[in-house]
Specification:
single chain; alpha+beta; three-stranded antiparallel beta sheet; binds protoporphyrin IX containing FE; heme binding; Cyt_P450_sf; Cyt_P450; Sad, putative ecdysteroid 2-hydroxylase, ecdysone biosynthesis; metal-binding
Length: 489
């Protein structure tokens, strides 16, 4: 907050917004920091705390250089944006098959090991074809509602486990949530979950280690040209390669096991789960496998880290927990219960939105412009990488009243006290936007709402420590969150 007040990001006037499209200055005139010969601004990054603090580093740059600047970080040159009007321009010009930035270490790895990957790694016509098949399946509410009872069941098991922790202290929140979200995604994707999986504690332990290695490995790689690191087989590359291969192997094994457990193809059973729907589309098994394996990887990390932030914020705000508790009581006492009450708790929805605004797991949205265009009044050549700084715009006072504070009510459109608390919702885009926006958004939101809907009536949460955000591929906590829970009487 203090840093914001000292150096507010320059405001973009209405006139300037209009001018963005009217005139175009050369690319080289985009503000840029002064760097040293050869190493550029590398020392600045290291001084600021390295790649794990990159969100803060970029935040400071925006205060210094404004809502648009260009900078080469490591081997990647990009134009950085922190303004909803500029985001809008990027999405307007992203084309029919938008190109996000694919992490280079993963591209090298895919090529080296001849891995064909899922939707996120696809481009052009191939991406468009699979996206058209997957979008309606993942957005279909029937797919979700079919599993509600099972979701409740998985949530109850996690909460039962928490109820029996010693002194009510949850010490492995990240691992517990990861396991929970893998289980609910298995239900949706392959409609199979049994005792064997609940018992597979190894999965959680292995995965926790893998996430950690993969993050450390690729974080170290981002300052090194990955192609060079791979060619020289440097320690950082080997670390990344080992952990990434283990993660892929695990996701593939899981998908393979799930495919084997699936009942034989039944033409009348198309809505049962995503995999059987894909089989209905006559998709070959190897394609189903790579797509579903990548969905597991994309789904479990993002939802578990976000839920960790939500629980942490709620634990710091007992008054919000109580508000949710009373909203749930109210909905449950209503005579018009229809079984989807979990969808109608405004403070749960607001809490998830606030956690994603303050701690967006996808801290930067990326697009590679395919044609020459004008953004922010500057000429942008084809193949320029645009990085949208979600962390910075989500905490900007111009778009959110008391932007540094956790205020779930600000998102309640029908509430009495939200007037003027969200000036521009486009400044917080935690699921991205446009044609390549997150395909799992509805699924992720529902699963997070259901867990909170089950948890808050049972417990109150209290945070035993303070955590900060660091980048480990995703925006996550710098140390394990220690939650103490008490059973509500
Ligand atoms: C809190 C949870 C989640 C967050 C914050 C999140 C965020 C994002 C973001 C920011 C993108 C890039 C969007 C863009 O560039 O415009 C994305 C893409 C994607 N997400 Fe999610 N996601 C979440 C959960 C999920 C889940 C549950 C799934 C799968 C079931 C999923 C699957 C994907 C896939 C496949 C893509 C690539 C889409 C494409 O390229 O067409 N995500 N997500």
């Amino acid at each position: 907050m203090a840093s914001y007040l000292r150096h507010p990001i320059r405001r973009i006037s209405l006139l300037e917004r209009r001018c963005y499209t009217a005139k175009s200055q050369p690319f080289d005139s985009i503000p840029a920091p002064k760097g040293l010969p050869l190493v550029g601004t590398l020392w600045d990054v290291i001084r600021a705390g390295g790649v794990s603090q990159i969100h803060r580093y970029i935040d400071d740059r925006h205060r210094q250089l404004g809502p648009i600047f260009r900078e080469k970080l490591g081997h990647v040159e990009a134009v950085w944006l922190a303004d909803p009007a500029l985001y809008e321009q990027v999405f307007q010009k992203e084309g029919t098959c938008p190109r996000p930035m694919l992490p280079e270490p993963w591209l090298i790895l895919n090529k080296k090991h001849a891995y064909k990957r899922g939707l996120f790694f696809m481009q052009g016509e191939e991406w468009l074809r699979y996206r058209k098949i997957l979008s309606p399946l993942l957005l279909k509410t029937a797919t979700l509602h079919r599993h509600i009872e099972s979701f409740y069941d998985v949530a109850d098991r996690l909460l039962d486990k928490w109820e029996h922790t010693e002194n009510g202290l949850i010490t492995h929140l990240e691992g517990d949530l990861y396991c929970y979200f893998v289980q609910v995604h298995i239900l949706v994707l392959v409609n199979w979950l049994n005792q064997e999986f609940y018992m597979n504690r190894n999965f959680r332990i292995i995965k926790t280690k893998i996430t950690c290695w993969a993050s450390i490995g690729s974080a170290r790689l981002t300052l090194l040209p990955p192609a060079l690191a791979a060619k020289l087989n440097l320690d950082a590359w080997r670390c990344f390669e080992q952990s990434a291969l283990s993660a892929l192997q695990l996701a593939n094994q899981l998908t393979q096991t799930c495919l084997e457990k699936l009942p034989p193809q039944d033409d009348n059973n198309e809505d049962d789960c995503i995999v059987s729907s894909l089989r209905q589309q006559k998709m070959v098994k190897s394609d189903i496998q790579r797509i579903v394996a990548d969905l597991f990887l994309a789904a479990a990390d993002t939802t578990s880290h976000t839920t960790q932030w939500v629980l942490y914020l709620l634990a710091r705000h007992p008054e919000v927990q109580n508000k949710i508790f009373y909203e749930i009581e109210l909905v449950q006492s209503s005579k018009q219960r229809i079984g989807d009450e979990w969808q109608h708790i405004p403070t749960i929805k607001g809490s998830v939105k606030e956690a994603l605004r303050l701690y967006p797991v996808a801290t930067f949205l990326t697009r590679i412009m395919q044609e020459q265009c004008t953004i922010g009044g500057y000429n942008i050549p084809p193949d320029t990488l645009m990085l949208m700084s979600a962390y910075t715009s989500g905490r900007d006072e111009r778009y959110f009243w008391n932007a540094q504070d956790f205020i779930p009510e600000r998102w309640n459109r029908h509430g009495p006290s939200n007037g003027g608390m969200v000036m521009d919702p486009f400044a917080s885009l935690p699921f991205g936007h446009g044609r390549r926006g997150c395909i799992g958004r509805r699924l992720a939101e529902s699963q997070m709402y259901i867990l909170l809907y089950k948890a808050i009536p049972r417990f109150t949460f209290q945070a035993e420590n303070h955590v900060k955000m660091i980048m480990r591929l995703l925006g996550t906590v710098d140390q394990p969150v220690q939650l103490r829970l008490r059973t509500r009487s």
